[in-house]
Amino acid sequence: MSPDAERQHRLSPARVLDLDPLLDDPATRIVVCCGSGGVGKTTTAAALGLRAAERGRKVVVLTIDPARRLAQSMGIDSLDNTPRRVKGVEGDGELHAMMLDMKRTFDEIVEAHADPERASAILGNPFYQSLSAGFAGTQEYMAMEKLGQLRAKDEWDLIVVDTPPSRSALDFLDAPKRLGSFLDGKLIRVLLAPAKVGGRAGMKFLNVGMSMMTGALGKLLGGQLLKDVQTFVAAMDSMFGGFRTRADATYKLLQAPGTAFLVVAAPERDALREAAYFVERLAAEDMPLAGLVLNRVHGSGAARLSAERALAAAENLEESRIVDQEAGKAGVRNSPDTDGSSGSPTSDQTVGQLTAGLLRLHAERMRLLSREQRTRDRFTALHPEVAVAEVAALPGDVHDLAGLRDIGARLAAGRPELPESTEE
Fold first, then answer.
1. Second label for 245, Cα 20 to 30 Å away, from 45, 269, 333, 361?
2. 115 exposed, middle or buried (CB, 10 Å; 0-12, 13-18, 19+)?
3. Is the dihedral of CA 128, 134, 136, 140 positive or negative?
4. Contact in structure between 408 and 293 (CB atoms under 8 Å)
5. pTM for the complete prediction?
6. Side by side, which strands form the sheet with 30-34?
7. Helix ranges restricted to H, 184-257
8. Does residue 296 contact residue 40 with C-beta atoms inside 8 Å?
9. pLDDT value of position 163
10. Half-sphere exposure of 319 (CA within 13 A, CB side)
11. Are 369 and 299 within 8 A, CB to CB?
12. Alpha-carbon distance 406 to 64, whole Å?
């Protein structure tokens, strides 16, 4: 493939994702930004929320553990579990932002579905405090819960969700089911059995297998912890079915036509592998995929100069400089006038050194572009049906609404804006 063809291929994925029609469509009620950690999901979600608001939508962005600088870029010192309006939005729409507080969300569920006495017992239980603050899957489950709450309020016509950071992008879909199954599973029923048959007296009526299991759990967990768990389970008895029911309801909401998933990745092997897994999982679960957002795409304004040619040119310059230096030294030795001034580097030599260094930097850049292109080609070969929006790598972090607005414009363009290359 010629250099021109390579550049055209790089800038023209099989399908370019057009995000503005998606954001403008009133039928689009939920946009979920998902992907592995560290690929720019939070910034993407915030930029999409701002763009949708400035195009007339009433938007709430649900972020998960955002960097403080991102909150400040929206003019908010800190985000919490309550949606807060963002000032400085241009146009007729509104933008609200919030950060998931998983413990507070769990507390709200307890307070909403238990009487005051039982709620107080649950909230003060040591096992509940550990479960609500950091049990595996709790953050993903509470993100689902909060999404369901926001949708039920019907206060916003678009909800943009930034999924929790995790090693695996699939955790967002899998963890809530795992936690729901745990809260409604066999282990919970075992722990609940003594309370249901009457405390200590009831233990006499438990079968031998049940007694052996609780005894083993007592040795494994420790007597006090097992007691805390059993007290928690007894207090939560009437609520367990609700966790599973709400998780299932929100899961169905994610399958609805008004929901759109955007898989966010970087042009790196691991990130795009996770993206491919997520695309396949969404298809298997009948969840609507809008496309792939590829952040931090690198480019060059001199793409026609290959890495090999740049390195060869750098080596030629460096070899010429060495030859010139040797010739200069010989001239100095043979000259009767040796005041030392001719030993300093000449202007031409300095320019040559700088040029060679720049050529080597360009070669490294072109090798990076080549690696990114091969990685993207592998993804496209697996999923040619997936539309892609590419966002060029930025020199720094986003620190204000103008930065988010710029990223939103880049997302809507679908392709990185790179300078045109010149003939070499």
1. 45
2. exposed
3. positive
4. no
5. 0.76
6. 84-85, 94-99, 58-63, 158-162, 30-34, 259-265, 289-297, 388-392
7. 186-196, 199-203, 208-221, 223-236, 240-255
8. yes
9. 86
10. 6
11. yes
12. 22
Q: Which pLDDT belongs to residue 29?
A: 97
Kindly report the three-state secondary structure assignment for every residue of 395-408.
Answer: CCCCCCHHHHHHHH
The pLDDT, as a whole number, for residue 150 is: 93
Q: Enumerate residues 6+ apart whose C-beta is below 8 A from 196.
A: 202, 237
Residue 99 pairs in a beta bridge with 63
Q: What is the pLDDT of residues 62-115, one digit of tens each?
A: 987 666 777 778 877 778 889 999 999 998 999 999 988 888 998 998 998 888
Q: Which residues contact 77 (CB under 8 A, 6 or more apart)?
A: 71
Token pair 């929206």 is found at 74
Distance CA 128, CA 135 (A): 10
Q: What pLDDT is stored for residue 166 in this prediction?
A: 67
Between the alpha carbon of residue 418 and those of residues 10, 306, 307, 415, the distances in Å are 11, 17, 18, 9
Query: In Å, what is the CA distance from 345 to each residue of 314, 326, 342?
Result: 18, 12, 8
| Closest among 114, 183, 94 to 142, alpha carbons compared | 183
- Ramachandran region, residue 231 (left: φ > 0; alpha: ψ -120 to 50; beta: rest): alpha
Q: Which amino acid is at 28?
A: T
The parts of the chain modelled with pLDDT lower than 50 are 1-13, 195, 197-222, 323, 330, 332-333, 338, 340-343, 418-424
- In one letter, which amino acid is 67? A
pLDDT at 199: 47
- What DSSP line would sit under 324-359, residue for residue? HHHHHHHHHHH-S---SGGGSPPHHHHHHHHHHHHH
**What pLDDT, on the 0 to 100 scale, is given for residue 205?**
40
Say what the pLDDT of residue 218 is.
Answer: 46
pLDDT of residue 8: 43
- Side-chain-side CA neighbours of 397 within 13 Å: the count stands at 9
pLDDT at 137: 72
User: Where does residue 195 rank: exposed (0-12), middle (13-18), buried (19+ CB within 10 A)?
Assistant: middle
Instruction: Quickly tell me which residue has 């953050």 as its tokens.
Output: 139
Alpha-carbon Rg for the chain, nearest whole angstrom, is 30
